[in-house]
Amino acid sequence: MATNKLKLGVLGSGSGSNMQSIQDAIEAGTLDAEIAVVITDVPGAGILARAARHNIKGLWIDHAPFKTKLEGKAEDEVIRVLREHSVDTVVLAGYMRVVKPGLLNAFPQRVLNIHPALLPAFPGLHGWTQALEYGAKVAGCTVHFVDTGIDSGPIILQAAVPVLDDDTPETLHARIQVEEHRIYPEAIRLLAADRLEIRGRRVIVTD
Ligand code: GRF
Prior knowledge:
Order of helices and strands: EHEHEEHEEHEHEEHEE
Number of strands: 11
Shape: globular
Strand content: 25-35%
Helix content: 25-40%
Mean pLDDT: 97
Bound molecules: 5-O-phosphono-beta-D-ribofuranosylamine
Distance between the termini: 10 Å
Radius of gyration: 16 Å
């Protein structure tokens, strides 16, 4: 199947296991893409060490004065770096900030996120803990296009996992992450193959 080799810019604040799953798919030859640059807002974040192990350029950008959003000078700098690396698709992978119209308008319909819950249930922080505390019997994860809301953009793929009686937040999150690492590369594969059509709130996967 014909694909356009995507140039990905990955933004992350944490350990980078989702970035790792995307890079693993690229190296396995199952995803026609390249991670051109990894950007973090957290000095020393694990995602930088993972990037270095794969010879991917990684850098920290100071996001001050904001703590929970990407805006202002930091947003300008992130966009500049993404453009400098010819990025066409922005992948949020454990990026603990709300992105604003500046980034979204710079990459229209080209910003993706993975959320650790079955949206629209449990948006925001620690979706797996929210599911557990609510008493949900099924949890999961969602890959979606990013819009100006919080975890509210059109859904691309979802995967469900059971919530077990003896789950802790850690065991449930680990089960969800197995699925994250499967569906995030898959969603990017569909994008690379030009098989995602946004129709209003719905994303249709075309043949
Ligand atoms: C994942 O659970 C993801 O869904 C959420 O943050 C976590 C990031 O994990 N947005 P990692 O940094 O990819 O390991």
